[in-house]
Amino acid sequence: MTTTATWPNSPAHAPTEEELDRLHAWWRAANYLSVGQIYLMDNPLLRKPLQREQVKPRLLGHWGTTPGLTFLYAHANRAIRQRGLNALYITGPGHGGPGLVAASYLEGTYSEVYPAVGQDEEGLNRLFTQFSFPGGIPSHVAPETPGSIHEGGELGYSLSHAYGAMFDSPDQIAFTVVGDGEAETGPLATSWHSNKFANPQQDGVVLPILHLNGYKIANPTVLARIGDEELDALLRGYGHTPLFFTGGFDDEDPIAAHERFAAVLDEALDQIAQIKQQAQEDAAAGRESERPAWPMIVFRTPKGWTGPKTVDGNVTEGSWRSHQVPLGGARDSDEHLAELDAWLRSYRPEELFDEDGRLLESIAETAPQAELRMSANPSTNGGSVLEPLRLPDFREHAVAVPHPGGATAEATRVLGTWLRDVIRDNPHNFRIFGPDETASNRLQAVYEQTDKQWNAEIEPHDRQEHLARAGRVMEVLSEHQCQGWLEGYLLTGRHGVFSSYEAFIHIVDSMVNQHAKWLKVTNELEWRRPLASLNYLLSSHVWRQDHNGFSHQDPGFIDHMVNKKAEIVRVYLPPDANTLLSTYDHCLRSRQYVNVVVAGKQPGPTWLSMDEAIVHCTRGLGIWEWAGTEVDGEEPEVVLACAGDVPTVETLAAAKILRTRIPALRVRVVNVVDLMRLQDDSEHPHGLAQRDFVGLFGQDIPVVFAYHGYPWLIHRLAYRHDRSSRIHVRGYKEEGTTTTPFDMLMRNDTDRFHLVMDVLDRVEGLATRYAGLRQQMEDERFRARAFAYEHGEDLPEIAGWQWDEGAGAQDETVGATGGDNE
Amino acid sequence: MTTTATWPNSPAHAPTEEELDRLHAWWRAANYLSVGQIYLMDNPLLRKPLQREQVKPRLLGHWGTTPGLTFLYAHANRAIRQRGLNALYITGPGHGGPGLVAASYLEGTYSEVYPAVGQDEEGLNRLFTQFSFPGGIPSHVAPETPGSIHEGGELGYSLSHAYGAMFDSPDQIAFTVVGDGEAETGPLATSWHSNKFANPQQDGVVLPILHLNGYKIANPTVLARIGDEELDALLRGYGHTPLFFTGGFDDEDPIAAHERFAAVLDEALDQIAQIKQQAQEDAAAGRESERPAWPMIVFRTPKGWTGPKTVDGNVTEGSWRSHQVPLGGARDSDEHLAELDAWLRSYRPEELFDEDGRLLESIAETAPQAELRMSANPSTNGGSVLEPLRLPDFREHAVAVPHPGGATAEATRVLGTWLRDVIRDNPHNFRIFGPDETASNRLQAVYEQTDKQWNAEIEPHDRQEHLARAGRVMEVLSEHQCQGWLEGYLLTGRHGVFSSYEAFIHIVDSMVNQHAKWLKVTNELEWRRPLASLNYLLSSHVWRQDHNGFSHQDPGFIDHMVNKKAEIVRVYLPPDANTLLSTYDHCLRSRQYVNVVVAGKQPGPTWLSMDEAIVHCTRGLGIWEWAGTEVDGEEPEVVLACAGDVPTVETLAAAKILRTRIPALRVRVVNVVDLMRLQDDSEHPHGLAQRDFVGLFGQDIPVVFAYHGYPWLIHRLAYRHDRSSRIHVRGYKEEGTTTTPFDMLMRNDTDRFHLVMDVLDRVEGLATRYAGLRQQMEDERFRARAFAYEHGEDLPEIAGWQWDEGAGAQDETVGATGGDNE
Predict the structure, then answer these.
(1) Range with the lowest mean pLDDT among A39-48, B140-149, B438-447, B787-796?
(2) Count of CB atoms situated within 10 Å of the CB of A505
(3) Residue of A510, A717, A723 for testing the chain B interface, max B β-carbons within 10 Å
(4) Which residues of chain B does A716 touch, with a Cβ-Cβ cutoff of 8 Å?
(5) What is its EC number (chains A, B) (predicted)?
(6) Which of A148, A285, A568, B274 is the most exposed place for a label (fewest CB within 10 A)?
(7) Could you tell me which of B388, B387, B366, B367 has the C-alpha nearest to residue B378?
(8) Which CATH number among 3.40.50.170, 2.40.70.10, 3.40.50.970, 3.40.50.720 corresponds to the domain B394-603?
(9) Gap between the Cα atoms of A662 and B66, Å rounded
(10) Which of A546, A47, A79 is nearest to A268 (CA)?
(11) Which residue intervals of B107-213 are DSSP H helices?
(12) Which of A226, A440, A521 sits opposite B456 (nearest CB)?
């Protein structure tokens, strides 16, 4: 276990009057720059009278949350300098972008990253103009913002990101601003419980600051309206020691507010230092640390603090009316223009910037230097600190396959043995996240190497269940938390896997949208270094929900993902254990992707030896000659294609029926692992050239495609290659219940017998010639269903079927388990 | 406002010894039937020795949560009888299906709904055999289960559903069991705050019962491991008065447990009666009621209570090992079979059922009768109590359109005036739900009629913001809560609309999956009556995220929905205010659908008069002759198709450019409102016949289609109609940032100039003949972008454009606002 180095604990002192003045000056500067970004496109230092045409024609941005964010940033800076903290700043209300852009500009980071935006009047003008401007920068704390790992546009993930960032970062602290609007979302509401998982010895510190400015877009917030007593109980119930700060109301002197808040923050940081010191002592003594009641801050200040008190007679400061742009008419109305002028001048820019437009040194030096600047913390550019995983050789975990289908294995269980060794070799920068499904998805081999990290109460008998204070597996029954933690972990330069039931990964549809967008934008930013990919392992999939039925059946996450940019998304459907191993090795080496891997956990045939699997996965798809009945030099009459483990079993069963019953029919079997290969190479980097597509699927012959998910996706992917009607896709068409796997296939017309019927219907002349066989297939599926249920038969043995026709192994039966699989 | 009738408040008395015995007998019967369902397919009363072959070959189901559910059900029944309560039972851990099936069977409801499953030994045998059996019933509290409005397969929505069910049901109570696993999910974690919205005068009561059985699938739960003190603080922080019950541990005498729990439940119900009485008095006096600290119960009992203490030497009762099927080897192992036998006999079935296999009358009568049975409460079959809305004439809200495009309106703002009148005419069974976006989406006219319901603190100035103790608009910054509330409201027979930003509706992707599945299954159940449709109004859409940028741009919810069954899903993209009115009138009349309506909130042209709009919406798509340059009797040379308000503007702009620059080109303009019309009529009930498709889009001519969302969806929908490459779709291809609407279109090649370029590239011979025009278009878009930004021009005026070529109105310019629009 990593244990914390000495937590910086320089004795803090209350700020002197001069320090308060300079702190306040820095805050004024940050607010001035924020307002400037929202409104101005010229005259950035107001050295000339403010004119209408200096105001942007479209006023876009969010003022309301901004002054609170800059206030907290200024105070965090003071604490960093005094205590030497290694700190991140995570902005829940990410729409307060101008504030964070301003902060990074004042710290010099912005000009380092974007030299065109220099520390002078011209740079200031660029800073202002580019904001929310075509060709400029977004209005949020976006990937473009130095120091950000959290866009915040979709609210609710600040705490999950912060905890994810702090796992295995024992020397760091994340100042995490939680918006009170955001706090109403489900993901945020449960993420408070992250503190039951963080370990004070091995992980860093999250200091949540609930930014209680009272209003959302158009309404008050719940947490601002339940009274301090109830709020205090709630936060204690979340496991925190809340410290309350209320400031900025009733024309409070800002210096007084600064002084009072500095004391609150010092109190929180002193508590943290004490907890960390205790953890160090515990670690030194080989003791576990108890879960502490970590401090947190309730920061109640007016929305739009220091902005216009009223606009057009309506209360604005301290109201939802401050949410976006309070003076919407600044370009069109003299009154608004004058008010904007007064507002800007209220920050006294002439006292903040020198002749050239550079922040006065006396103010600038209140911020920390170099990598201690939150805007320049290397962890916030995760790729810059990313170390590649030391990956053990996955070939050593191969299932021995005497002939195709000649070994039975549970694919994810085999993968688990490799992941166990990945954990062994990477004890500090790799974690597995799952919603209570790691064992259900058959990855339990990892517990030979590690434990599930849990810092709520542990009972003695939990120890044998691999519950421990520290471990590489994070399990909480919230897909949102798993996703948020993993994102935070990846964004700060580490690696991980999210293992989930296939159907419920839709719960994070919207979160992964945002992560994919983050990756897309960072691909366009040279200074952002590539991150480890976000790897999904989706098991307990649609075809094998024997216990749970219809509610657990949805393979549509793939459809959701393929709407994101092609450069970001990869989808793999390995048909067996060996291909899963090869696929996952590839995923853990990759960067800047979202890898969606769907794999079964039930015993199933292993089709390919490891060498064959590697070749197959490298190609992404290929012809399985041994499964078909092609004749050299002649085009096949039909292609049976498949993608996904269960459809592959059915396809091979159909191929065997055809081989037996219509031996002269030239059948080709194609298996697809990398779904993106079906696209055209102009659409996706993994896409096939038209020539290669024809080489695999022929030019005009019918293709019967058994697909894991919703069938129409195959058409959408192969669209440019083939717009004829020759590809006939079977898959899940939203028919299901609690039933056997074979019945599931039958309900969706994807069973082996139906695939044979499809071939008969599609290959010219067969339907009439083999009318009897067609009827027989129809009967057979009903018999098979009943028989399979009664005898508890699983798919590889339905109707006495087994694949025993591997190369040179015609006489062998499907053996028991091969290789290291149990 | 509806105010509560007299809350039933018959004096409760502690149960007598005999009552406790009978209560216990009912519980034993429910548990016996639950175990029987999981294991047996014969010998249901154990009148013969238990044999292996009487055990099902596949043991599927969840035992762990079941005994707790049946215990609570039995006690709820006692309370209902004593107090005359009108109660629902909502089962968060819905996988405990056997328990609820057992309860409804014991109450007789099951046999009433499914006469084949009678109240005798044969019926019992059917009850057991059908469970989790092919052709039988699901393992969860599914739509098939009488009394259920909540499947619970995807965890997290029990409280939201319960509150939704209780809005406007002042005389009802929902006993709502919250699983402690479920409690870790985000949606559940925030749904505790629902009590800040419920009104004690007008709404019913939710009694949350936190089922703290300590374990999930393979792990302890967070709330079971934070200690009672922290848990108590948390629940008080949620605004509740928690009552703690711990029972069933250390071999507690079950009668003692019953006696103690009865007292706890009575305490909770006494508190509720008092709150309701106070609310009645307040209502009578015309006073508002304060938000009370509603009681709730913490129910800490062993997981798998009354099941095997150990299995194969492992602790089972009180452990996660009870989660599914504790004796997995009952068919294969003598030991497990004997243990199953002993387990079943521990409930002493011979004391519970008479000679025929019928529950003894003395036990049966402990349950309530007729509609007071929770399994037969009419509200749980919402369609049976559904009253159609009284819909005001939407035509009266029409925007007057002197000629196509001859009036400007904000579509959703106009809709708001009609919704205002819908609320006026339906004061008790219609609500609007939104995540703080009702005004942002421009529906504020509704506040002329109603308020936002809010039962947290109200400050005096909130009153002018339409915050009130009761109102028809529910706003909380959680899409999960909005969706859950609306679902609960619909499932109990009412109507509603969910208004949301388009991008963030993905947050409920997984929830709407479950609702669509519920609708699909209930379509197959004769006894379940049709519900009002779930209506989305998605605004602030992808093309108009001027303030927020990339994070707020995602039109993929449509793609997500079309994977659900065609009978369930409808998608509408009305191009203007009048078509939106007509569409929404249709949606509010419809049943059993999920209606997705995407509409803009920005000022835009109104193309059709109301009469034309009605015809157009009834057809779902059609040719806009006035926009094209067709020549009677000749086929057009190109079709410009469009779906969505912004693409419609661009398409008409492109049509105008073409008309001006290539007057001889025969252009047809087709607008699509009902997206499902693009499918084949064999795939979707709204689908077009092939003949009609050709009639609109021609046979072989190029089609340039400007679509609101991800372009490939159009191919997927029109796939069966047209597999050629002649349809060329433009749409959002995941390029965006904070920028102007025109720049957004440009980034995605969907702007008017690019559409013209597409026409030039697609219609034979034009590219060479009009090479100059092509280049000009390329230049024009860059010029237009800069000019539009600088002059704050919106789409209808880009590059000086306006649609002024309406029939007979060539000389008119686009006027100011028409009709009743402001």
Answers:
(1) B787-796
(2) 29
(3) A510
(4) 712, 715-716
(5) 4.1.2.-
(6) A285
(7) B387
(8) 3.40.50.970
(9) 52
(10) A79
(11) 109-113, 121-130, 158-166, 186-191
(12) A226
Class of domain B621-791: alpha beta
Question: Looking at the domain covering B17-379, what would its CATH class be?
Answer: alpha beta
In chain A, residues with a C-beta closer than 8 Å to the C-beta of B94 are 551
State how far residue B409 is from chain A, nearest Cα, in angstroms: 20
User: Which residue from A minimizes the CA distance to B551?
Assistant: A153
Strand order across the beta sheet in which A569-572 lies: A467-468, A452-453, A473-475, A430-434, A495-501, A534-539, A594-598, A569-572
Structural contact between residues B712 and A719, judged by C-beta atoms closer than 8 angstroms: yes
Measured distance CA(A161)–CA(A148) in Å, rounded: 11
Selecting from B233, B481, B560 the residue whose C-beta is nearest the C-beta of A233 gives B233
Each residue's pLDDT tens digit, B491-513? 999 999 999 999 999 999 999 99
The mean-pLDDT minimum among A428-442, A721-735, B259-273, B790-804 falls in: B790-804
CB atoms within 10 A of CB B768: 9
* Minimum distance, in Å, between the CA of residue A504 and any CA atom of chain B: 7
| pLDDT tens column, B77-129 | 999 999 999 999 999 998 999 999 999 999 999 999 999 999 999 999 999 99
Nearest to B551 among A153, A216, A712 (CB): A153
Q: How confident is the model at residue A805 (pLDDT cuts 50, 70, 90)?
A: low
Q: What is the CA radius of gyration of chain A?
A: 30
The residue of chain B with its CA nearest to that of A508 is B507
For an interface test with A, give the residue of B550, B707, B794 to mutate (most A CBs within 10 A).
B550
Contacts of A101 in chain B (CB under 8 A): none
Please tell me the distance from the alpha carbon of residue A456 to that of residue A445, in angstroms, as a whole number: 24
Residue A166 to residue A207: CA distance in whole angstroms: 11
3-class secondary structure, A821? coil
Q: Look up the ipTM and state it.
A: 0.95
HEC string for A537-601: EEECCHHHCCCCHHHHCCCCHHHHHCCCCCCCEEEECCCCHHHHHHHHHHHHHCECCEEEEECCC
Which residues in chain B have Cβ-Cβ distances shorter than 8 Å to A517?
550-551, 734
Q: Which of B219, B314, B739, B746 to mutate to test the interface with A (most CBs of A within 10 A)?
A: B219
Q: Is the CB of B478 less than 8 angstroms away from the CB of A437?
A: no
B342-401 pLDDT tens trace = 999 999 999 999 999 999 999 999 999 999 999 999 999 999 999 999 999 999 999 999
Helix (H) or strand (E) holding A486: helix A479-491
Q: What is the DSSP letter of A53?
A: G
CA closest to A790 among chain B residues: B57
Q: What is the DSSP track for A726-752?
A: -EEEE---S---S--HHHHHHHTT-SH
Residue A216: list chain B partners with CB under 8 A.
436, 477
Q: Which residues of A touch B320 (CB under 8 A)?
A: 465
Domain boundaries, chain A: 17-379, 394-603, 621-791
Virtual torsion, Cα A189, A192, A193, A197, nearest 10 deg: 140
pTM (two decimals): 0.96
What is chain B's alpha carbon radius of gyration, rounded to the nearest angstrom?
30
Locus of tokens 């073409």: B658
Cα–Cα distance, A15 to B482 (Å, whole number): 46
* Domain B17-379 shares a fold with domain B394-603: yes
**What is the spatial distance between Cα A222 and Cα B193, in angstroms, rounded to a whole number?**
8
Q: Which residues on A lie below 8 Å from B712 (Cβ)?
A: 716, 719
